[in-house]
């Protein structure tokens, strides 16, 4: 990674599938909010110059407090997100320092991503303009209609499960988000927003352990994976 990188960490979701009163990004993992684990990873990377943290409008003060408590000095902006993930990402891009020519977007609830994977994704982006972390799907995937009838079985060799970070040249990502907003297009990730402009987006192979904490059964799994990561780091 050679360029000046900024990171947008989105954490403005409600976490409805988790079903907890507390939004999932604030639930503890090894005694620390999930979101803090995520931010600490970026804070520790020399290549990342600044971080824009996007949270719910009611959580801005609370998160400013977390940034101070955990000494996350690279978080230069804590801003309110929108009703959809895409709106939150766009708010984060606008809040990043003008010096950041390259931007990676990461889900606050993917605390298990590794520095190695982040670097792999950013290096691919520097070569191609845009790159996303992904893993090949392990299951056979079926397309199914509303009645439960299987319609097709796409060739698994071309299917990848997409993760974050997703990394882009900033001008490309900004223009793609502006266009999506004008055209009222909503995608489930930033690659979709960029793909529709015709710009190439490439895959950087990641790890199956970079899970998005989504439902209650992800929590013990995340605890286990974090513990394993720590043990491996201590061995080195
Ligand atoms: N309006 C939104 C929606 C989502 N996110 C963030 O995008 C990431 C991925 O979203 P997801 O896991 O789907 O989170 P939620 O929307 O919180 O979950 P759910 O769909 O279960 O409500 C999360 O870090 C989430 O906080 C966001 O910043 N703004
Ligand atoms: C961006 C993402 O993490 C890629 O897997 C994902 O799309 C986030 O949100 P989702 O709404 O849970 O799919």
Automatic annotation (TrEMBL):
The keyword Transferase applies. It comes from the Bacteria. Pfam families: IspD (PF01128). GO terms for molecular function: nucleotidyltransferase activity. It catalyses: 2-C-methyl-D-erythritol 4-phosphate + CTP + H(+) = 4-CDP-2-C-methyl-D-erythritol + diphosphate. Pathway: Isoprenoid biosynthesis; isopentenyl diphosphate biosynthesis via DXP pathway; isopentenyl diphosphate from 1-deoxy-D-xylulose 5-phosphate: step 2/6. Its EC number is 2.7.7.60. The gene is ispD. Coiled coil: none annotated. The keyword Cytoplasm does not apply. The record marks 17, 24 as: Transition state stabilizer. The record marks 156, 212 as: Positions MEP for the nucleophilic attack. Keywords: Isoprene biosynthesis, Nucleotidyltransferase, Transferase. It is an enzyme of class 2 (transferase). This is 2-C-methyl-D-erythritol 4-phosphate cytidylyltransferase. Catalyzes the formation of 4-diphosphocytidyl-2-C-methyl-D-erythritol from CTP and 2-C-methyl-D-erythritol 4-phosphate (MEP). The lineage of its organism: Bacteria, Bacillati, Bacillota, Bacilli, Bacillales.
